Amino acid sequence: MLAIAEACARREIAAEIAVVLCDVADAGILRQARERELAAEHIAPGQFRTKLDEAAEKAYIARLREAEVDLVVMAGFMRILKGEFLRAFPNRVVNIHPSLLPAFPGLEAWKQALDYGVKVTGCTVHFVDQGVDSGPIIAQETVPILPDDTAATLHQRIQECERRLYPRVIGALADGRIAVQGRHTLWTGTSGSL
Q1: DSSP code per residue over 111-165
Q2: Is 84 helix (H, G, I), strand (E, B) or coil?
Q3: End-to-end CA distance of the chain
Q4: pLDDT digits 0-9 by tens, 48-100
Q5: What are phi and psi of 154, to 5 degrees?
Q6: Would you say the C-alpha torsion 155, 40, 174, 70 has a positive or negative sign?
Q7: In what helix (H) or strand (E) does residue 95 lie, and over which residues does it extend?
Q8: How far apart are CA 127 and CA 142, in angstroms?
Q9: Stated pTM of the model
Q10: Which residue from 121, 122, 173, 119 is spatially nearest to 146, judged by alpha carbons?
Q11: Residue 97: which H helix or E strand, with range?
């Protein structure tokens, strides 16, 4: 969120953050958003651990519609979004994941990559669908796994990569240079890339 907010403030992204919503009441993201004078609110997720319950889903949808958002940008929101939410914002919900999807979906992807022994991992920005990290891929950036990497050092380098890639993708989405067609993302404009 901070990297995106800073890119918006520098006008690298032709957009603004309308509202920051979080399912964790004491999350640092809410404090950081308020420090930047952004609307920031906690909405309780409800009774489930891995998804929003029906009332929470309706509350999130209502607040995002009230804020008139064009794009829902997820960062660290560890809940699977389902039908009604995704129907409310079709092809307008994006997420960043700390692996080169489709490899290592789900939790602690950097640990999965390290344990598996791959030599390269990275991060992926993707549209959100009803699966777990299974939506159409928008962009990816690689991070090498070094011989002396620990889960912590690898995760830190992936997060640095995420802070570079996510704002660039959000900027391209805000400029209308990315569209989704089935499982594929289409880039428009002269460069066709980030």
Answers
A1: HHHHHHT-SEEEEEEEE--SSSS-SPEEEEEEEEPPTT--HHHHHHHHHHHHHHH
A2: helix
A3: 19
A4: 989 999 999 999 999 999 999 999 999 989 898 888 999 999 999 999 999 99
A5: -65, -45
A6: positive
A7: strand 93-97
A8: 19
A9: 0.93
A10: 119
A11: strand 93-97
Query: Is 155 annotated as catalytic?
Result: no
CB within 8 Å of 65: residues ≥ 6 apart: 88
Res. 191: pLDDT tops 80: no
| pLDDT value of position 117 | 97
Q: Order of strands across the sheet with 120-127?
A: 72-73, 93-97, 120-127, 137-144
pLDDT digits (tens, 9 = 90+) for 131-183: 899 999 999 999 999 999 999 999 999 999 999 999 999 999 999 999 888 88
Query: Based on the number of CB atoms within 10 Å of its own CB, is 74 exposed (0-12), middle (13-18) or buried (19 or more)?
Result: middle
- Out of 97, 126, 155, 184, the active site residue is 97
CB within 8 A of 77, min separation 6: which ones?
22, 23, 95
